[in-house]
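JOB MANIFEST
job_type = single_chain_structure
chain_count = 1
residues = 82
[input]
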Amino acid sequence: YQNEAQTLGSDLVATEEFEFKPGDVQDLKFALKPESNYVGVLAAYRQLEKANWRLVLPLAIKEKNELTVLLNQRGIELATPR
């Protein structure tokens, strides 16, 4: 995650970094750039090899995108809409 610009090159549109503690609930809103097609989420885990530490989510172009991402002991998950 420290070399995202080198890894993604011109495909990288923007980055944001947040820190969460167990039990935290955050409502985050982003104004995405028109050229954004995906949102990538990654998290650091003590046992990285046992966790699903990354998630790539496609975006609907020119539409409002609402996504709920869960960070738990198993890793990152996209929540099922209710």
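[summary]
The chain has one helix and four strands.
The chain has one domain: 1-81.
exit_status = 0
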